[in-house]
Amino acid sequence: MLTRRDYLKQGVLAGCGLAVMGAQALLADPNPNLDARIGGRDSLKVHAHKYGRLAGCAVSAANLQDEAFKKVLTAQFSLVVAENAMKFGPVQPKPGVFNFEDADALVAFAERHNIKVRGHNFVWHEMLPAWFAGTVTKENAKRVLTEHILTVGGRYKGKIQSWDVVNEAIKVDDGRPDGLRKSPWFELIGPEYLEIAYRTARQADPRAKLTYNEYGIEDESDSAEKKRAATLALLKRLKASGTPLDALGIQSHISANTGAAFGKGLRELVNAAQAMGLEVYLTELDVNDDAVLDADEAVRDRVVAEVYRDFLNSALESKAVNAVLTWGLTDGHTWLNGMKSHKEKQPGRQQRPLPFDADYKPTPAFFAMRDAFDRSPSR
Ligand code: G3I
Asked: Which CATH homologous superfamily contains domain 18-375?
């Protein structure tokens, strides 16, 4: 396998002009052995902490069965989020019957290793259990919602750094003036489901930072601009009504080689959230490389790392951003390989979206992420 130095010597530079800057920056790192300079003081979490930030990643139940995963996790990250274990369906598989096994395992592991935990999520239109549609009605929806949040939030009271209380409530294409998604919770309760969820979450766990989490609000496209406007309008309405809300989660699912650019819109979003008194977390960072047609992994890694660098340089300009989590730790476990679009575009190819490859070797994205922490202003 090419070491990073060998690959760069070959001058294999792909993607945009930024690759040249990235390559020069990487050549400046005199480390021929990728593994020697990533632990301890050179870890992501230490570089993040130097500037008042947390570095984290999503963790699945299967990951916690993998010793190599746990070794890299504890060495590199100080914040974790359950990829699926705390979602409504996995946690309440039957009405009033709760399954906390996987969520408890993650919280216990994090406590043992002094790692903070994000909760994800109370309210979403996905991963609702099979019983939901036939059981939850306009008459009982508020009770189902509040009992779920009180039960789950109460169980982890004092142990959660922040909760994604509501996830992805905006869908401009649903055509509402307020941009709200016509999700099951919206159809059953109406727009007030949001305020009910946040007030209940505050009651369940007064110490958790209550977060609104959204995707598709990162780049300079028209669709992202429209979604940012609707998202900020929602946050302003919630704050104006006295709804307890502490943070904005920017999911940060990015695609390489799609022309996506980051700058003014992202900075304005972060600044507007900060002006409302909100913290900002980058909650689910990964870079989809399906559109990088070159099959050479070193080329794909270079392009992915440049997107990490470009995006994080814009996002981390603000001191309001105090946590960066990747949606997974290793390319060996990423939701992106299960996407229908991936199977259509790149059948048989494994995605390379994360800071560690399938063998737990740091990828150029690792170094790009660490460099971005070092370039960011101290909080
Ligand atoms: O656990 C079942 C298993 O028993 C069953 O055999 C299998 C086949 O049906 O499904 C398994 O559940 C899957 C689950 O992931 C665990 O692997 C679900 O079908 C699958 O839909 C679920 O996908 C998750 C997706 O959210 C939907 O909840 C992804 O892992 C997860 O990475 C993804 O994460 C979301 C964030 O929560 C919100 N932001 C977007 C992000 C990506 O979609």
From this structure: Glycosidases (3.20.20.80)
